[in-house]
Design a protein that fits this description.
This protein is of the alpha/beta class. It contains 20 helices and twelve strands. Strands 6-5-4-7-10-9-11 form a seven-stranded mixed sheet. A three-stranded antiparallel sheet has the order 1-2-3, with no helix packed on it. Helix 6 packs across helix 8 and helix 16 packs across helix 17. The protein is elongated, with a radius of gyration of 37 Å.
């Protein structure tokens, strides 16, 4: 190939001697094309034309007998230049027909499958499979791998469920050591609060927080974070309720680790005169009923048709079977007006929350005559966490549920609630709660499965005042994609879900918000090797 420039630079002649193109002449207008543009054009042509000449020669030489015209050369050359091939297109169409046919057929029983794609290719070569035989084996392999992935996912969820419901060794150690300390150390048994502060336990000019828990470490984090976030901690009274087996250890912790100037009361359920079996007969039934015990403590896989469940639905069903839902501590909040007859307004906190902002403004929020100030969970940025309506908690195929409830009614959150106890005492909330619990027991738990929130959603209907969502952020115990920047803005963050921050399965990027309130220098915490930051 030769390139010749005219003396005036007004034309360029490109000639070749390969027999396909004799010459190409380009005229250049003097005033419309710059030398820079001309240089780029020449450079492009210098690279492009040899490629065109070579491909054209190859196409012609491949099938000179069947392609003797320029039109034929163009038809064969075009797809190659454009990255298409007529033969490959037909092959894809043929394969699609075979795949479509095989998709509606069952895989033969006993079909021996290769373990890998490379083995499949090797068998195709050795056994000369036709397209249908290849498609059947490919389908069978994909179905097998899909089953194995589902099984491993369900096994992972089961293991996570067991990890979430078990007591970590460090926390169990902490409870045992503090219980032992209670029996041997007089300081661990000192009265809480001191006698001079007893009148403040019913003083409504103070801000009263109530928490029911058997987790000593979690309780310490809730109290510590509340105090450190408060602008006036001297106005705070904390009422910590626990069960009989944990009482000694819980009392020891707060007696040996006083948090001045806050007033802390630790009380066991056995110390409330009102909590008799006569007053809470439904709870006795819940704890003793064989079917209930078997449901929460039995085999969670037996009888379950996993093929009809997605992993997410299976995970939610497992969470609903947590034994904590039949604990009396989980039901105590429904008896607050009777347990604290002299208090008017309280804030109830779950033990898996962290306080990041002063909560005293909660006492200034008007509930408008309602009983329960709570964050609604049917709308929000996170479509998984904040999309809860009644249909997420109740079985609307049950006639009683379908008759009395609206599936699209907005749900609200337990975990951080403002309760007006004076307004509560004028209602029938507790009676309604008991009535629906009995109905669900009679129906063999077919009306709802998930713990204490469903009967509360019914009992508090018409008594809930929505509060700003920034007060209470949920989902830190199951939403891995929780944004850290959103966590920092919330007043209360709630690790509801299985991945509690004190467990190994807790989310690493969310644990520091909780762990910074753990006193890792404490001898009991250090000696029990509590999970660190």
């Amino acid at each position: 190939m030769q390139i010749h420039f005219s003396p005036s630079m007004r034309s360029i002649t490109i000639s070749t001697t390969n027999g396909f193109i004799d010459f190409m002449k380009i005229k250049v207008a003097a005033r419309h094309i710059s030398y820079r543009t001309l240089f780029h054009t020449i450079l492009a042509l210098a690279f492009l034309l040899p490629f065109v000449f070579i491909v054209t020669a190859l196409v012609t030489l491949e099938d000179v007998d069947n392609c003797s015209s320029l039109d034929c050369v163009g038809r064969r050359l075009g797809p190659r230049l454009l990255g298409r091939s007529g033969d490959s297109g037909r092959l894809v169409k043929d394969l699609f027909k075979v795949f479509n046919q095989v998709n509606s057929e069952e895989v033969p029983d006993g079909l021996k499958l290769p373990e890998s794609f490379s083995q499949l290719v090797s068998e195709m070569k050795n056994n000369q499979y036709d397209a249908k035989a290849f498609a059947i084996r490919l389908k069978a392999m994909m179905e097998k791998f899909d089953r194995e992935i589902r099984e491993s996912k369900f096994a992972e969820l089961m293991n996570k469920h067991f990890a979430a419901t078990a007591i970590p060794k460090g926390i169990h150690c902490l409870s045992l050591r503090l219980t032992d300390e209670y029996s041997s150390n007089a300081h661990a048994r000192r009265q809480l609060p001191s006698p001079e502060f007893l009148p403040l336990l019913s003083d409504n000019s103070y801000h009263h927080f109530i928490m029911a828990t058997d987790n000593i470490l979690a309780a310490s984090v809730v109290v510590t974070s509340t105090i450190q976030s408060a602008t006036r901690p001297e106005r705070i009274v904390f009422h910590v309720i626990t069960d009989k087996k944990t009482y000694a250890g819980m009392h020891s912790w707060f007696a040996l680790n006083p948090i001045s100037p806050v007033i802390i009361e630790v009380k066991g359920v056995h110390q409330f005169d009102w909590l008799t079996r006569e007053n809470v007969p439904v709870l006795e039934a819940v704890e003793s009923y064989h079917g209930i015990k078997n449901y929460y403590h039995g085999n969670h896989i037996a009888g379950a048709n996993l093929s009809d469940l997605t992993p997410r639905i299976f995970a939610s069903k497992l969470q609903a079977r947590s034994p904590k839902y039949i604990s009396i501590l989980n039901h105590l909040r429904i008896y607050l007006p009777e347990l604290f007859p002299n208090l008017n307004k309280v804030v109830f906190l779950d033990d898996d929350v962290v306080i990041q902002r002063d909560l005293s403004p909660l006492w200034d929020i008007s509930l408008g005559g309602k009983v329960n100030g709570a964050v609604e969970t049917c709308r929000g940025e996170d479509e998984w966490v904040m999309s809860k309506r009644f249909k997420n908690y109740f079985n609307f195929s049950h006639p009683l549920i379908a008759k009395n409830l609206d599936p699209n009614e907005c749900a609200w959150a337990y975990g951080m609630n403002i309760f007006d106890l004076r307004a509560w005492r004028r209602t029938r909330i507790r009676a309604t709660y008991h009535s629906w619990l009995k109905q669900n027991l009679r129906s063999n738990l077919t009306m709802w499965k998930l713990g204490t929130l469903p009967p509360a959603l019914i009992a508090f209907r018409g008594h809930v005042q929505p509060i700003d969502p920034s007060w209470h952020m949920l989902g830190l115990g199951y939403q891995f994609k929780t944004k850290v920047e959103n966590v920092k803005k919330a007043a209360v963050i709630h690790y509801n879900g299985q991945s509690k921050p004190w467990l190994e399965i807790g989310f690493e990027h969310l644990r520091p918000f909780w762990a910074k309130y753990v006193n890792y220098s404490n001898d009991f915490v250090r000696n029990c090797h509590i999970l660190g930051e």
